[in-house]
Each structure stands twice: as structure tokens, then as C-alpha cells.
Specification:
about 130 residues; 1 helix
Amino acid sequence: MRIICVIALLLSSALAVAQDRENWSCQSKDLNGFSWDGSEWTRQAFSNRSWRFTFAGANSRQSINGQLVDFNCTTDAVIKQCSYHGVYFIFNAETGLGALADVFGAALNPDDNRQTFVELVECAKS
């Protein structure tokens, strides 16, 4: 009987986590930044892009061009704050507006991180 109770608790925990997942489709509205040319940073406009974001707390994920990037996000229902190795995503679930930024490239060794950017996005729940 204890084994059945333990299994039931584990299954209900997994279901609760699965229910907290939110999938959003996002589109760049503006994407600008800087590129390192070997001796200095120069302004660069990047092409707008589309991508998906799954909010799931510590198991959040961005999917862009077939590449998956894991993020750690807060579980706040409205304002989501996410990070992954110097990349930050701040998102308002009520308005669908957010910003993805990688600004640490300018402060760290630019030969290892040749671009830094800020991307303004608009997302729709999917």
C-alpha cells in the first residue's frame, strides 16, 4: 500500500509540474546590438527572428532555429525573469511583451563573445 501511495504522489507531482508549463511563440520587434571586429565594438542591426519559449521554472527553455537553450525562470504568474549564462529574458505575461538581452559580451573577453544584443519581443501564448 505504501508503494502505491508513493507512486501516486510521484505521478501527481509530475502532473503538477507539467500543468505549470506555458508555451509562447515570440517575434522580434527590434533587435540591435554590437559586434566585436577584433579591436573595437561596432553597432550592428540584426535580422528579426521568431522563436518559442516554454516557461517552466528552473526547466524553462528557448527554441530558436532548432537549437534549444535552457533557462532558469521565476515562477511569478505575470512578470517572468529568466537567465542563462549572462543572457536574460524579462517578460510580461499580461501584455505579451518582453526583452531578451546578452550584454555581458561587452564586459567580458570579446574574442570569446563577439556579439552583444538587446531584442524586444512580442509573444502570443500557444
